[in-house]
Amino acid sequence: MKHFLLLLTLLLSLSAAAQHDSLAAANTLTGDSVKGDGIKTGFTFGVLPAIAYDSDLGFKYGGLINLYYFGDGSTYPDYMHSIYLEWNRTTKGSATNQFFYDSPMLFGDKDIRVTLDASYLTEQALDFYGFNGAEANYSAAFEEQDAMRYISRMYYRYERKMLRLTGDFQGKIIGKKLRWLFGVAHFNNKIGTVNIEQLNKGKDSDDLLPDTLTLYDKYVDWGIIPEREADGGVNNYLKAGVVYDTRNIEANPSKGMWSEVLLVTAPRFFGNKENAFTKLVAIHRQYFTLIPDRLTFVYRLGYQGTIHGNAPFYMQSYMFMSYSPSVITEGLGGAKSLRGIKRNRVIGDGFAYSNIEFRYKFLKTKIKRQNLYLALNTFTDIGTILDPVAVDRSLIPAGENEADYFNEQQDKLHFTYGLGLHAALNENFVLSVNFGIAADKQDGTNGLYIGTNWLF
User: Fold this and answer.
1) Per the omega criterion (within 30 degrees of 0), is the bond before 267 cis?
2) For the CA atoms of 303, 304, 305, 309, what is the dihedral angle to 10 degrees?
């Protein structure tokens, strides 16, 4: 049922975007016009309503809008300014509130790119499977209500409320290809166990969630998650690095590369009293044209690792990069890293990942002066832990079955494969549907992801 409703949002959003021209006639705010050869000028926008249902989290409602400004069209298909707003709620209390702004021309000819994000995100049931990938045992029977060993559908979950404020700036070193990057950010995470009482409101007696300990609760009680991290905390960090970018189009390149090396540091003098750390990030993305304007081959290689200090457990899954339009980018596992593997299934102090895709535009047309293309993609995603989180198994109380929590193996390669469908209006507003399958049942079975933008 929830998948049907999510697919319905995709159709509704295409319909809403297709109405843009008639709306522009009635509302001069849009200012949209078309130059020769379909080049967009002025303002344009895309809208995506959010309609979904989950038996535990409730009915989801809300939506997003992405406003683009192309000016005189000289930069099209790249925009001059982009404003992204997302607001949604579930009837049981989860929420997304995001303002995202990106512009390479905020300071005119100064050639400084500015990317700003202000988000407040509340998640009542965020995935948590332990640390170090395959070393942590995942038992589907613990969360399947009809299974003999059922514990709770919320067993591998915890609650998180996160305030995120970030500002990134990029400027040229050599032309527009090689750029410096500097960023500053404030994260405030409030962590706790799942609010079972809230999620049980309105449920039939047969469907009530049991009031029992989750895996997160046990890790906290045993001390595997340190007391100072258990309820979250404040992290202020600085980000600095270099970016090399030769992409022909930012939204969906068909040639060029996009690479970066970053240092992300949360030092004690910057307000990080409980947890100070520094991470090294290296990401390389490359794009190849196989059939002009139709078929491309793309790949991404990434590494992220702690090189100093101790990152708190709730920041280990956060994937740092020079630019991400996503509301939240976490992994490994889930929509933005390993599609088909459960979200945050593969968490470590250092990890590597790869995404490989073929992208095929099978339809290019116009709908009421709006440039539209539809594209299919096939993909395989791979990830692994390189530096595991230190876990002291001696903290597990006597009487607990250690095999319920840990496998006697180190991490290995995690594979997924799948298919996707993308619909893009005016190159930049991209609606995406990806379906990924996990190769190992310890990582889950599959995942359906409906959202915006290409993965990279």
Assistant:
1) no
2) 160
SS3 call for 10: helix
Whole-angstrom CA distances from 317 to 73, 177, 285, 334, 389 are: 39, 30, 21, 11, 12
Whether the pLDDT of residue 387 is over 50: the answer is yes
Q: Is the dihedral of CA 276, 161, 57, 201 positive or negative?
A: positive
**For the chain, counts of helices (H) and of strands (E):** 5, 18
User: How far is residue 321's CA from residue 238's CA, in Å, rounded to a whole number?
Assistant: 12
Question: Using CA atoms, how far apart are residues 174 and 164, in angstroms rounded to an integer?
Answer: 32
Q: What pLDDT was estimated at residue 111?
A: 87
DSSP per-residue letters across 365-421 = EEETTEEEEEEEEEEEEEEEEEEPPP--GGGSPTTS-GGGTB-SS----EEEEEEEE
Mean pLDDT of 41-67: 86
Confidence of residue 183 (pLDDT cuts 50, 70, 90): very high
Mean pLDDT of all residues in 91-119: 91
Q: Please identify which residue in the block is written with the tokens 């409320």.
A: 161
Cβ contacts of residue 82 below 8 Å, gap of 6+? 66, 67, 68, 69, 100, 101, 102, 103, 428
The stretch 67-93 carries a mean pLDDT of 92
Which positions ≥6 away from 103 have C-beta within 8 Å? 79, 80, 81, 82, 113, 114
Q: What value does the mean pLDDT take over residues 235-263?
A: 97
End-to-end CA distance of the chain: 29
Confidence at residue 37, expressed as pLDDT on a 0 to 100 scale: 66
- Please return the burial class of 158, using the count of CB atoms within 10 Å of its CB with bins 0-12, 13-18 and 19+: buried
Give the separation between CA 449 and CA 323, rounded to whole angstroms.
Answer: 20
Beta carbons of 440 and 416 less than 8 angstroms apart: no
Residue where the block lists tokens 């309820």: 231
User: What value does the mean pLDDT of the chain take?
Assistant: 89
Q: How many CB atoms lie within 10 A of CB 107?
A: 13
> What is the model's pLDDT at position 274?
78
pLDDT-derived band of residue 26, with 50, 70 and 90 as boundaries? Answer: very low
Question: What pLDDT does 60 receive?
Answer: 87
Q: What is the pLDDT of residue 51?
A: 82
